[in-house]
Amino acid sequence: MTIVSHTLRVIQHFTERNPDLIFYIENPRGKLRSLPLFRGLDRATVTYCKYGDKRMKPTDIWTNNLAEHQGFGWRPRKMCFVGNPDCHHEQCHRGRLCGVQGMQNAYERSKIPAALAREVIIAAERQN
Which residues pair with 59 in a beta bridge? Predict the structure, then answer.
């Protein structure tokens, strides 16, 4: 929580001085979304499988560059959901050694799909 709080203070410091500064904060869907620190920040939730990953992995991304709020910027892909016939992620129920739980180590579990990284970088570059 100390790191998250400090990260938000750093973002606030620099965006107050440069309103054109774009930021993204990524965290697997969970506790951060319920923290008062994040109230008022725009958030999108994506699933990694929509970006070519074999895992579904719902993930929150906070940013000041969401197209739906500004008319320009990043347009996240629609989320997948369990049972969606259009999604092709690995089916994995809690407690099984597949999906995120079956990955070898924290480094492997924390990788962001390249397509998602490219998408947010391109959206940010368009603003400059």
Answer: 28, 46
